[in-house]
Write a structure and sequence with these properties.
The complex is a heterodimer of chains A (about 325) and B (about 325). Chain A has about 325 residues and is of the alpha/beta class. Chain A is built from 11 helices and 12 strands. Classes of the chains: A alpha/beta (about 325), B mainly alpha (about 325).
Chain lengths: ~325, ~325
């Protein structure tokens, strides 16, 4: 399969009054046609910014300053705002985090979906409304035709997220980027949304990037997981290998901090000591070195690059001097 | 496909922001009273000519300065004209001016404020600079200056046009009053609207649903017109209701000073002015227009407060 999206050495800086501060530092990521990629990392590690930068949606004073991002044969970072606008929605769809606030409160949901359709596909209003009903049915909303006339506040959070997904799908994008779409939802609803997206991906044959900080959640959804730390990819592997033989110490720390059924009640969950480096105050070597129990001298001075993990699947790569060449599982 | 969750039944009665606001407004008695008074005023202003028992211009010199009676509920003035009819016609003047001034000011304010807030940067700086400058012009002074400098040349020009064309429209001096004085009032009343809209747009443009609309590839124009401005309407309605009241009072004030609507066109302001001269002998000539103006002003304030509470429920104690 060919890569639909190929990001190389992407850097993103925040313009501060004191000078630029780097938040994304040389991200390499690719996603294949029809693949689903989970991007995992804690708040502020640059996962959302990376995806927003692709379509020119970075907030004020935050800019992509280097690297390339090839999408379906085009270089996204070089496109004009008008060209990017045509990519948004039509080629790359988005689902956002908070369904409670991501819908326009004064527009009926049918109109909101239809707006996207009219704009993306040039349908006329009645045809777009009919298609909007189909989309609501597709995302599993009961009595979809009646719901077209509802306002967002009349729907529950899970329903609204389904509407958001329907809107995200309106332009039939080849890549759907889901930015923590379940964070604001109940656990049972989260599972439904994950199932829905997986099902839609298979049916519509699109690629999905699922951004989350919840490793357990995307275990059942992603084909491959990229772990981000402080604006770099520290580990990138097929989903099974992330869980079976996590290689980067940060990945191991994340997995160790997940509760399991065999934990003693009331026992403390292991956590990773310290905090991630602030933008603009990155350590000279590996960004994780200050928090890493395995760090050696080289980690302090040299930045490790992503390289294949010895003795593992060739697609399993990690950026660590110590563990990536160990060759043995932790 | 997963089974969808059981639909949580929404309220029997789907409510919208506006229905909620209307419910809250209805609970506020003062606001309802204010609304009722204003509705009555609008009705009277709209159907004035069919409601007035007498023509507001027709003089009856045998019935001058009569006190209120059944035939003339508000009495008659020094030329024997029916005061009630003139007050009713004054409502037309007041409303026409208030709506005209507010509409023009609102239009300018919304356009400039939306552009400044949405595009930011240099646009914003320049527009806000113009706004601050305009705000610093004293309204009364400007209207006086315009009256003193522009009115006469325009009147002469209209007179000349009338001689040329014999078109009666050029004889209508009321047009000069309205266009000149209240046009200039509108042109300096827009800054509060521009500031309000700009502030609203600034806060709304970073809301998630605007980002979501951008992610759909919608154009700036659609995002502004359909996603941002409709969500800014609430505070704007409150401002407009206050603005209408202010414009009405301003009209009376200017007419009172003789730089607004001029006799014989009745305005509450010029009626108060006339009544003031003779109020010791004929208090009803002052009382009638002054009382109506006071009641209407209070009604606007009550309604504005009620709307504010109804549309911004979070601001309530």
């Amino acid at each position: 399969m060919t890569a639909l999206l190929d990001i190389n050495g992407l850097t993103i800086d925040i313009d501060r009054d004191s000078g630029p501060a780097r938040v994304v530092d040389g991200i390499d990521l690719s996603i294949l046609e029809g693949e689903s990629l989970g991007i995992v990392g804690e708040s502020g590690c640059g996962k959302s910014l990376t995806m927003l930068s692709l379509v020119g949606l970075l907030p004020n004073r935050i800019r992509a300053t280097g690297g390339t991002a090839h999408f379906a044969g085009r270089e996204l970072l070089r496109l004009s705002p008008a060209e990017l606008r045509k990519i948004r929605g039509a080629q790359i769809g988005f689902i956002f985090q908070d369904p409670m606030t991501s819908l326009n409160p004064v527009m009926r949901i049918g109109d909101q979906i239809a707006e996207a359709l009219i704009y993306q596909t040039g349908l006329d209003k009645p045809a777009a409304m009919a298609k909007a009903g189909d989309l609501l049915e597709l995302v599993g909303i009961p009595s979809p035709r009646e719901r077209l006339m509802a306002y967002p506040h009349e729907l529950s959070g899970g329903m609204r997220q389904r509407v958001m997904i329907a809107i995200g799908l309106a332009g039939s994008p080849r890549l759907l980027i889901a930015d923590e779409p379940t964070t604001a939802l109940d656990v049972t609803i989260q599972a439904q949304i994950v199932d829905l997206v997986r099902d839609l991906k298979d049916r519509l044959g699109m690629s999905v990037v699922w951004i989350t900080h919840d490793l357990a959640l995307i275990a059942g959804l992603a084909d491959r997981i990229a772990v981000l730390y402080a604006g770099t990819v520290v580990e990138d592997a097929p989903v099974d290998l992330i869980f079976e033989r996590p290689t980067h110490p940060y990945t191991r720390g994340l997995l160790a901090s997940l509760p399991t059924l065999t934990d003693r009640p009331m026992s403390r969950l292991p956590s990773i000591g310290g905090t991630p480096p602030e933008p603009g105050r990155r350590p000279a070597g590996c960004p994780f070195a200050p928090r890493c129990t395995l760090a050696v001298a080289a980690c302090q001075t040299e930045v490790p690059r992503l390289r294949p993990v010895a003795g593992s699947d060739p697609r399993h790569r990690a950026a660590c001097f110590v563990t990536a060449k160990e060759g043995a599982a932790a | 496909m997963t089974a969808g969750p059981v639909i949580t039944p929404t309220d029997d009665r789907p409510t919208s922001l506006w229905k909620d606001a209307w419910r809250r407004l209805r609970r506020n008695r003062l606001a309802v009273a204010g609304l009722a008074i204003l509705m009555l005023l609008i009705f009277v202003a709209a159907f004035g000519p069919w409601l007035t028992p007498y023509d507001f211009l027709s003089q009856n010199l045998d019935a001058r300065n009569l006190p209120p009676s059944l035939a003339h509920p508000f009495g008659t003035d020094d030329l024997g004209r029916d005061v009630l009819s003139r007050v009713i016609y004054g409502a037309r003047t007041a409303f026409l001016v208030a709506v005209l001034v507010t509409a023009v000011a609102l239009f300018i304010g919304v356009v400039l404020g939306a552009i400044a807030g949405f595009y930011g940067g240099r646009f914003d700086k320049a527009l806000m600079w113009v706004t601050d400058m305009t705000m610093s012009v004293p309204q009364l002074l400007l209207v006086v200056v315009i009256n003193a400098s522009l009115k006469q040349p325009i009147t002469l020009w209209m007179e000349a046009r009338y001689m040329e064309t014999m078109n009666p429209i050029y004889r209508n001096s009321a047009i000069i009053d309205f266009v000149l004085v209240f046009g200039s009032m509108a042109l300096i009343s827009w800054p509060p609207y521009a500031r309000l809209v700009r502030a609203q747009v600034l806060s709304i443009r970073n809301r998630p649903y605007v980002t979501a609309a951008r992610a759909l590839g919608l154009t700036n124009r659609i995002i502004l017109m359909r996603y941002i401005l409709p969500n800014a309407v609430g505070p704007l309605i409150v401002a407009v209701s206050a603005g209408l009241g202010t414009a009405m009072v301003l009209e009376s004030a200017f007419s009172f000073l003789g730089i607004g609507v001029n006799p014989p066109t009745p305005s509450w302001g010029n009626m108060i002015s006339d009544g003031l001269r003779v109020w010791t002998n004929y208090p009803h000539l002052l009382l009638a227009p002054a009382a109506v103006l006071a009641i209407v002003t209070v009604a606007f304030n009550f309604l504005g407060d009620g709307l504010n509470d109804a549309l911004n429920p979070k601001g309530q104690k």
